[in-house]
Amino acid sequence: MHLMSGLPNSVSPRARIAIVALIMMFSPFAWAQIAPPKPAPVEVKPETPADTLGRSSPRGAVLGFLAAARKGNDQIAALYLNTDLRGADAEALAYQLAAVLDRRLPARLNQLSDEPEGSLPDPLKPDEDLVGTISTAHGDLDIMVERIDRGKAGKVWLFSRNTLTSIPDVFQELSTPAIERVLPDFLVKNRLGTIPLFEWLAVLCVPVLYILTGLLGRLIGWAIEASRRYRFRSTAPMPPQPLPPPIRLLLVALSINWLMSTVSLSLLARQFWATAVFILLIIACTWMLMLLNRWGEGYVVASRPRMSGSAAVLRLARRVINGLLFFAGVLFSLYHFGVNPTAALAGLGVGGIAVALAAQKTLENVIAGVSLIADHAVHVGDTLKLGDIVGTVEDVGLRSTRIRTLDRTVVSVPNGQIANMSLETLSVRDKFWFHPLITLRYETTPAQLQSIVIGIRELLTAHPQLDSTSVRVNFLRLSTSSIDVDIFAYVFARDWVDFLRTQEELLLGVMGIVKEAGAEIAFPSQTMYLAAHSSDKLAHLVPEFAGANASHALSNERDLHH
Question: Does one domain contain both 349 and 366?
């Protein structure tokens, strides 16, 4: 209205409306008024500062408390307690809690949650987490930590009030461990890096235990061998070590576990030995499965020594299984120590795809080799015809197959190429095809031809190395320069050389039958009939004909008709 009132009165109403619309269209102020309002900026909340004592997670709180108590810093250890006590009273309570945990708490520190929210064992109590359960004179006691809000300092995990209430009574139940009463004082009181000397010496017992298991294995082997010789009169040699290394490691792990249940050790020592036992068990089980895998491969190869190429496939399968066993052991160990392997698995998956794309041809040849070996399509010693290649197979590998050709060279053909080609195995023929074509001269009479056919049929039928049911001898056709007799039969022979000897014998017999019948084997020839009135024309034609057919050694017969 203000814009319209500023215009002269002489301007018509429609012109006024158009002028106002143009002004509003090109006015930044007008567009700013009608534009949609911008969203209010999101307030960035200040990040909660990280706790310097590591109390942001249950595991951090427990480990930080134990570290402070082990260093003898009870003043810092008291900061991990949710108690109203202050000063010396709080430090004394922290000392008692550290002593109780050191003697009674199960070695499960690696299972504590490292998340700020905890492991949420009870959804109804989201701010509490269980550290462990200890045995007392009045029953089991749950050692709990609870999440406390400290305002600007953020939320931290502290040992709960209910747990701290029972700690003084449990502390009174503690006594000096039996092992510390037996060992000399310098091994118990002297420490190296906050760890008593006798706990360091215990580490040296692991190789000693392993050596003892070796001696035990030799004793067992000698006992078994003596028993076999005395009772079964067997003189077969026994392996010198009936206990393989994985079994020895398993015995060491079981021995350490038994000693842990017998000897009272500190919490960190029990945690160390529990971790050592777990690692030894993983190594022993993985190693034992790999040995069983190798023994299985050796048994299959020994039971079928003439399996062509299968040894390579079995070796590949054994290595793949060993890799999977090792990978499973690593994943299980990571899971036990609270490491999430999801990101590593995703990275391995992407890396595996990249490797597969880079080694596409190699993988194609390997898969084709496995397929050829599984289908028993190619064996060592087979005579193959592969395209233009004819030779004997010398080796069937996973990537390629080596063939010794007839001129004694070696050709390596990729298995992927063999899988996509027509493969003819010449050495697996049960019979050899004897199929010559006998050509007789046109001067052969019907009686001679019939005698030749019958004679050849009788020759083939009576031969011991021929399949008599397959013998066929027939007058086939009248060719341009001969009378053709077709011979068809299958020959039993050990190999190609034996077949050639039999074929030679049969062909000589066929030639003898033809000769006895008074006929002759024809060769390419032509008969020309020329009509001429003078010998000059004949002399002119004969050289041209002879020159055109000199390479075929033609026999020319000329009948002149006048």
Answer: no
